[in-house]
Structure formats: C-alpha cells, structure tokens
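Exercise 7b. Backbone tokens:
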C-alpha cells in the first residue's frame, strides 16, 4: 500500500514536471511498479484506454509515412504518450487507498502553495512593487497556475479540512494562491465545482439565490482586486474570464489583433488547414510532426515562427494531427469516461471530468505536456477504481 507521503513525494520530484523528461520519468516509474510491485492494469481498463492508443498509432504512423523523422514527430509522440502514461499510472495505483491519494495531493498542493507564497512575500519585502510586473511575470512568480492547487483545494473540502483551525488555514492558503496566480483556467475548476454543487445539493427553490450570491461574490472580489492590484496589467479576473469567450472565436485577425485573440486565430488557421487536406489526410490528419503554417512571422516567447507545432485547442490539435478518425476515437473515449464517472458520481470527480473536457477546448487539456498532469492522473485513478467496481 502506498502512503500519502509517498504519493506527494512522487509528484513533487522536479523531473515529474519538466516537459519531455516528465514522460520518460513516468515510464520508469511504471516499469518500477510493474517489476517490483507486481501492479497490473485490468483488461477492462486497457479496453477503456484503447482509443487513446489508437490515436497514438494513427498519429505516429501518418507522421512517419509523411517523412517526419525529427524533433517535431518526437514532440507530438511524447505529448500523446504522456497522456497514455498518466492514465496508465492512475490505473496501476487504483487499488491504493483513495484517502491516501487524496491526502498526498492535498499535501503536495499545500507545499507548492507555501513555496510560491513565501517567494511572493520575499519579493514584496525587498521592496519590489507589484506595478513593476507585467501579468506574465506576475503569474510566473506565483507558479503560473498549476492545477494541483485548485484540485488540492477541492480535495481539502472533501476531506473536511475546514473543520479544524489548522485545516482552515491551509484552505485559505490554497485559495489565496489560486487567486494570486491570475489563472483563469485554475479558477474555472472551482467555478465548475461550485455550479455542480449548487445543481446537485441545493434545493431547486434556492438554486437561483445561490448562483446570484456566487456571481455577486465574484464581482465583489473582482472589484476589490481591480482597486488593490490596478498596477498589474490585465489583473482583473472577471474581465479576463469574460474576454475568454471572445478569444476562442475562430476569425482571421490581422497582425495587430492577433495578440489579443491568439487562440481564436489558431482555431481559424487550424480549420483552414484541415479544409485544405486531401481526403486521406482529412481521415487520418497530417500526422505527428505536422506544423500549422502562419500567414506571417510571429514572435512567440522570444522566438520567431512562421509555423507552429502546438495549438491551445486540444480538439483542433487532434483534428490536425490524427484527422476525423482520431477525433472520433477521442470523442468515443470521452463518452465512455462520462459513463464510468456516473458509476459512482461525486461532486469532485464530476468537477474534474467536466474541467478536463473544457480545458481540452481552452488550453489543450491532456495534450498540454505539463500543467494538466495531476488532473489526468487523478481522473485516470478514479476511472479505474469505478470501472473495477461495476460495469457501465
């Protein structure tokens, strides 16, 4: 049996969150458990994950057939392999105590939050004013919104940590870091959980009141934040959330607008490229290593690109790389996952699943090589547990 401390340590190792080495390390961990612990994935769970294996086979084979043998083929292969390995790791640990996994993630979230909050306070103590930071520098200072923190916060409520003074302090710590990261996607997990709680646990006659209080509370916080952090560009979370809807709209923006609508511009280019594919490529995509051409050169993260390897919309990523067939495999897998979630539906698991679905739309979801790792692992762990208990 693996203790909560071991789980927290496993997820806190630097290699476990460092891009491509992340997948390699996970593979070594899985091999270790298979060899020494004799942990196996059930056949039913393997059948469930089969569509993701097929996606990998389609993408790799099509990329190889298209003459992609370099770093681009390797990168896309690792992205999907990372998804498979995390699901597999969750499946292998499914007979571990759920409380141990939950406590391990909660402990990891608290340690992570404490580290970044101390770093934040240090910068303030040495006299660095917030106004000197742009929003990206500010988010990097606070950890860029790793999802272990909002997940740990929800697990904290599940474990009833708010029932003790020390537990309340830890809950406040996690909530403070979620707020300070300025991450819309991290906040999205909490919003989804809030609405699911209201929908499932609150009487219908009280639901409108709860939603109104929820929204007014967020507006009040947003107003206070705007006053206290006005020096930080784009610091208002409410305005950022509202603008997110427009950012996703596919459109052919000009060079001056692209910076404000990058994700919508990506979606437009992806649809345009997919429509130009021949029939075979529409079925099986451009393959791993396919690069999305840009109509003009763009400077991204300090580098100049005329084509890009990754799209923030995971569904568009699949459509380009593995075509309509691979896309349908993924939709089928999501449908099966939804049915398994409903075997033993809880607010936490439902929140994680729907966040997973939405995050795939707004940031790549499981095809984002790093930030979603803890979400994919936790979802895989719970899906494997549910699947081992009953059929669906």
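Sequence design result:
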């Amino acid at each position: 049996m693996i203790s909560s401390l071991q789980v927290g340590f496993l997820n806190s190792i630097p290699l476990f969150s460092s891009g491509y080495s992340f997948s390699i390390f996970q593979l070594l961990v899985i091999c270790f458990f298979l060899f020494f612990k004799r942990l196996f994935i059930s056949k039913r769970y393997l059948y469930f994950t089969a569509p993701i294996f097929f996606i990998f086979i389609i993408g790799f084979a099509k990329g190889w057939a298209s003459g992609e043998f370099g770093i681009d083929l390797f990168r896309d292969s690792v992205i999907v392999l990372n998804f498979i390995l995390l699901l597999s790791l969750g499946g292998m640990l499914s007979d571990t105590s759920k409380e141990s996994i939950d406590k391990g993630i909660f402990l990891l979230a608290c340690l992570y939050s404490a580290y970044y909050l101390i770093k934040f306070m240090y910068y303030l103590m040495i006299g660095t004013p917030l106004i000197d930071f742009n929003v990206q520098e500010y988010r990097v200072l606070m950890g860029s919104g790793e999802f272990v923190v909002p997940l740990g916060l929800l697990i904290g409520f599940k474990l009833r940590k708010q029932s003790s003074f020390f537990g309340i302090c830890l809950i406040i710590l996690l909530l403070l870091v979620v707020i300070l990261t300025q991450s819309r996607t991290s906040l999205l997990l909490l919003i989804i959980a809030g609405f699911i709680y209201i929908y499932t646990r609150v009487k219908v006659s009280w639901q409108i009141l709860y939603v109104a209080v929820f929204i007014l509370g967020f507006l009040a916080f947003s107003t206070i934040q705007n006053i206290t952090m006005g020096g930080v560009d784009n610091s208002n979370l409410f305005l950022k959330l509202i603008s997110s809807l427009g950012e996703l709209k596919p459109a052919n923006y000009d060079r001056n607008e692209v910076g404000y609508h990058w994700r919508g511009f990506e979606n437009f280019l992806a649809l345009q490229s997919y429509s130009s594919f021949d029939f075979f490529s529409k079925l099986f995509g451009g393959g791993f290593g396919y690069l999305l051409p840009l109509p003009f050169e763009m400077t991204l993260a300090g580098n100049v690109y005329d084509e890009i390897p990754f799209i923030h919309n995971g569904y568009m990523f699949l459509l380009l790389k593995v075509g309509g067939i691979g896309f349908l495999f993924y939709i089928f897998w999501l449908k099966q996952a939804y049915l398994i979630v409903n075997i033993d539906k809880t607010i936490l698991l439902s929140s994680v699943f729907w966040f997973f679905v939405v995050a795939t739309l707004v940031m790549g979801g499981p095809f984002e090589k790093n930030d979603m790792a803890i979400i994919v692992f936790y979802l895989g762990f719970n899906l494997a547990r549910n699947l081992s208990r009953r059929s669906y």
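Instructor comment: The chain is about 70% helix and 5% strand. The chain has one domain: 4-244+319-389.
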